[in-house]
Amino acid sequence: MTEQTVASPSTAEAVSISPGTTVVAIGTKKGLWLASSPDRSEWTLSGPFFGTLEVPSVAVDTREGRVRIFVGINDWHFGPTVVHSDDGGAHFSETSAGAVVFPKETGASLERVWTITPDTAGRPGVVWAGCEPISVFKSTDGGEHFELVQSLWDHPHREHWGAGFGGPAAHTIVPSQVDDNTVHIAMSTGGVYRTTDGGTSWKATNKGIRAEFQPEDEYPEFGQCVHRISADAADPGTLYLQNHGGVYRTRDNAETWEPIETGLPANFGFSILTHPSKGGTAWCIPVSNGDDRFFPSGKCSVYKTTDGGDTWVEQHQGLPDEDYNVSLRDAEGVDGHPDSLGLYFGTRGGEVWFSANEGESFARLAHRLPDVLSVRAAYVPA
């Protein structure tokens, strides 16, 4: 397979990316938008790129002295793939025949790229992709080509994994920051799986996570509809999890999970974020437990913990008091800013909100976009 570089697939202008800049990639139901800012106060917003295509996944990779923006697109004619830009959207490179392709012997075809995860734990060139049908792919050349993680595809549980409301998705990949052999993944529906031998084998690690939709066995070995997981910055064995009904924490590398939802207005939601350098600090965006799936009581708020989920504090300043939308599982991100971490999230109402002070106050970055499906941000080191 060869790579080709093509001019940006739109009339949108590339965004300026320089040291000290913050870059935000926004994937929507119809196209990609890119934003940049030197101070996280005034933003330049450009788009749409890929204006007729769904963009369910994005990533911003600042490793190796460049800023590479990854975009998972659903091309209704040519099929899903991953493309990338190293110049702020002026050009996008794509691999002929597709960067993410199932081996012929699997009999499967790619339906969606749910998440793209650059491996930031000192492993140059490694990029992960979580896909539909439920599968994980790994790239070792910076995302030019991805290979199927065959051991997970061959797992005996795979034939029993089901689809969440949005489809069967491997939507979270969390490589350990301290151990090259350990990776956690989460899927809907299937739950959390972990490898500690570099991917040779995978173990279901869902003990304590409730599957409320399985009344015959609410605590099965696997089959939970986990929506997102994220790792603690200080303790590699501590992770946080948003489930289909329940917010959880593990302190033993996912061997067992315990609920940490006391103090939240609802235990449903789609995402959970952790601070990249402060242990015990995480955020979630609750969603009502009923069939409406709105922000609880129609009030858009973020909730923060600084004690590992023992207590939660509402963060609402600058956010709307009345908003009957929702933030989806890949539509949140943090920027890694060294002075004061930035938070970002988008809604199905086409709005993108940001905070430059770890959630103390929010402002609107973009509005009147199509449904926001994916948001990622990154600070470009000065």
Q: What is the CATH architecture term?
A: 7 Propeller
Largest sheet, strands/sense/barrel: 4 strands, antiparallel
Percent in helix: under 10%
CATH topology: Methylamine Dehydrogenase, Chain H
In N-to-C order, the SSE pattern is EEEEEEEEEEEEHEEEEEEEEEEEEEEEEE
Q: List low-confidence stretches.
A: none
CATH class: Mainly Beta
DSSP E strands, number? 29
Class per helix and strand makeup:
mainly beta
Rg computed from alpha carbons, rounded to a whole number of angstroms: 19 Å
CATH homologous superfamily classification: YVTN repeat-like/Quinoprotein amine dehydrogenase
Question: Alpha-carbon distance between the termini?
Answer: 35 Å
Residue-averaged pLDDT: 94
Multimer state: single chain
Q: Helix segment count? A: 1
Summarize, please.
The protein has 382 residues and is mostly beta strands.
Structural features, described:
With 382 residues, this protein is mainly β. The chain has one domain: YVTN repeat-like/Quinoprotein amine dehydrogenase (Methylamine Dehydrogenase, Chain H, 7 Propeller), CATH 2.130.10.10. Helices cover 1% and strands 40% of the residues. It has one helix and 29 strands. The protein has one helix at 150-153, and strands at 3-7, 22-28, 31-37, 44-49, 54-61, 68-75, 79-85, 91-95, 112-118, 127-132, 135-139, 147-148, 169-175, 183-188, 191-195, 203-204, 226-231, 239-243, 246-250, 258-259, 268-274, 282-287, 302-305, 313-315, 332-334, 343-346, 352-355, 363-366, 372-379. β14 and β15 (191-195) form a beta hairpin. The longest helix has 4 residues, at 150-153. It is globular. The protein starts with a strand and ends with a strand.
